[in-house]
Design goal:
Elements: H1 3-21, E1 29-35, H2 43-56, E2 60-65, E3 76-77, H3 83-86, H4 88-96, E4 102-104, H5 108-117, E5 131-136, E6 148-154, E7 182-186, H6 193-203, E8 212-223, E9 229-230, E10 239-244, H7 249-256, E11 262-268, H8 277-289, E12 294-298, H9 299-304, E13 314-323, H10 325-332
Parallel strand pairs: 1-5, 1-6, 2-4, 2-5, 6-7, 7-8, 10-11, 10-12, 12-13
Antiparallel strand pairs: 3-4, 8-9, 8-13
Helix pairs in contact: 2-4
Length: about 325
């Protein structure tokens, strides 16, 4: 273990010890969704899918999120506005889940109390359904007790080089997989069964009890900046230039390569990149140079383009979290 990795581990251990010692509990059930690595596991589509399923099962879900890179001081109710205020993921969840409160606050316990007691909270109009808190990116938010700990693991790149930050992509040592109540291997649709079996065997070294489910993040449709929805077949016969600023750009490239259109190029930015108008100009130049008819990006990136002058020939690919029904039975049990 290198010096910087060791220093990270010392800080991580102290923070974790303090948080567990002072852990608090909300008066309603909490389901946590998180990962053990930095980015790229598909937490946002999973959180959206769980919230939608919760509604079908008679719950009133409330999403509690940190709102990474959002400037607004919490606790605040996320509105469909600029991601500069709330962060791109909370705004995306708010847009996709129009009747589900999304509360941004670094302290998710305070965020939960805000959702329950603030006069601005919409839950006071829906008191008949049992409330369910969904803790977004919560595996390392030890300060809040959760009834179910769901751990997402990216099957395409599970643990990187198996080293902690900053030497690797691990937020925690692999042994902390033991804390998971449910484990989901994401993006498994194109992974060979032998590799999945090998990964499951490795996971079971750290956690023998948690059920393991396989999930896919499937392309659903395209959406324009104005909100127009186009089916996947819309890509046929078209040339596309793609760009993204997400945790796993290789996964986006892999997904769009399955579409019927031709990808003429892909430009990637850092995760949570805040776009400027100059970025749009650069993208337009590269798209034109590659003879692209259209420019495509991710739904999360489209959120970050708000307030900029966006070309009319731009569309965002929306993703659907697909998993066996038994996962939901386990999560809501």
């Amino acid at each position: 273990m290198g010096i910087f990795e060791f220093l990270y581990y010392l800080g991580y251990s102290a923070k974790k010890h303090y948080a567990f010692k002072h852990q608090k509990r909300l008066p309603h059930k909490v389901i946590s969704i998180g990962n053990i690595t930095t980015g790229g596991t598909g937490k946002t589509p999973a959180a959206i899918a769980i919230a939608e399923e919760a509604k079908k099962r008679g719950f009133y879900p409330i999403i509690l999120t940190r709102g990474y890179k959002g400037n607004a001081k919490g606790p605040v109710l996320v509105h469909r506005a600029s991601c500069i205020m709330y962060g791109d993921e909370p705004v995306l969840m708010s847009e996709r889940l129009k009747d589900v409160p999304v509360v941004k606050c670094a302290d998710r316990y305070k965020g939960g109390l805000f959702a329950l007691h603030s006069p601005d909270s919409p839950i006071h109009r829906f008191t008949d359904s049992p409330i369910l808190f969904i803790l977004d990116d919560g595996f390392q938010h030890w300060r809040l007790f959760r009834d179910k700990n769901i751990l997402l693991i990216d099957s395409e790149n599970p643990f990187g080089n198996k080293r902690l930050l900053p030497a690797g992509i691990l937020r925690e040592p692999l042994g902390e997989i033991k804390r998971a109540d449910i484990i989901v291997l994401t993006k498994t649709d194109d992974i060979k069964q032998a590799l999945i079996d090998k990964l499951i065997k490795e996971i079971k070294q750290y956690n023998q009890n948690a059920p393991i489910f396989l999930a896919a993040h499937k392309p659903l449709n395209f959406i324009s900046p104005s909100g127009k929805v186009m089916p996947l077949e819309w890509t046929e016969g078209k040339n596309f230039f793609a760009f993204c600023g997400i945790g796993n750009p290789k996964s986006f490239r892999k997904t769009i390569s399955t579409l019927k259109g031709k990808i003429t190029g892909l430009k990637s930015y850092r995760d949570h990149h805040r776009y400027k108008q100059s970025d749009i100009e650069d993208i337009l130049k590269e798209a034109k140079k590659s003879n692209a008819d259209w420019i495509i990006t991710t739904e999360k990136d489209l959120i970050r383009l708000k307030g900029l002058k966006i070309p009319e020939n731009l569309a965002a690919l929306t993703i659907e979290f697909s998993i066996d029904e038994e996962f939901y039975n386990e999560a809501f049990n």
